[in-house]
Prior knowledge:
- It is a single chain.
- By secondary structure, this protein is α+β, with helices and mostly antiparallel strands.
- The protein is 26% helix and 33% strand.
- Strands 3, 8, 9, 10 and 11 form a 5-stranded antiparallel β-sheet that branches.
- Strand 10 (124-136) and strand 11 form a beta hairpin.
- It starts with a helix and ends with a helix.
Amino acid sequence: MNKSILVCACAVTAASSFGADSVSVALTGVRIQNGLAQSRSSNPQTLTPAYKYFIDFSNDTMVRGRSGLLSILYPNPTPLATVMESFQPGSSASLHSYSINPTGTHPFQTTDQPVTGNTTISGIAVTFAMTLSSGIDASNFAYFNITNVAITPSALVGSMEFTSGSVVISRGCVGDYNNDGGVDGADVETFFTAWEAGDAAADLNADGGVDGADVEFFFTRWQAGC
């Protein structure tokens, strides 16, 4: 084989296996329906392993009612955050989160985000619950799941579907503890404030406790920079 062709082929292979700093999981067509589990993947996009990931729903994530009362209440595409807030004030905060991956390898699953709430639609009391989860599999493909969907009374309330948007999973930096884009003394101060308070967010090695091992893990990543 021609040497230049061989070099080119190796470069392409290396680039495709290395992955990217962020990937998107398209949500269009995903349904929110009682008892229905839904899953989507970033395939063929792969994500390079990291010790920290940001999980963000894109700003154009919209849903609309597909059947029942939800189709009357939300006949047109509506921001997902707006719908979530109507069921449970403050729940839209779960649309922007981060997760620590102590091993820096894949597979890795982020912490599940349970969403529950209740509201009244046309005089009918409605309860709602679902679990949002995401992660990266052993092949470096990111995924997003909606499970444990419970809507009651389901026959009257109906279902919804995503009309646009995506879940973006991007690599972060453990040393940038305050997420301001830099690794400096402010991150040390913020980390130790959380650590001394026993904040679960300071359990960086995800062993279930906030102790010296987390300090060691933090400083190892902090000294490595981003």
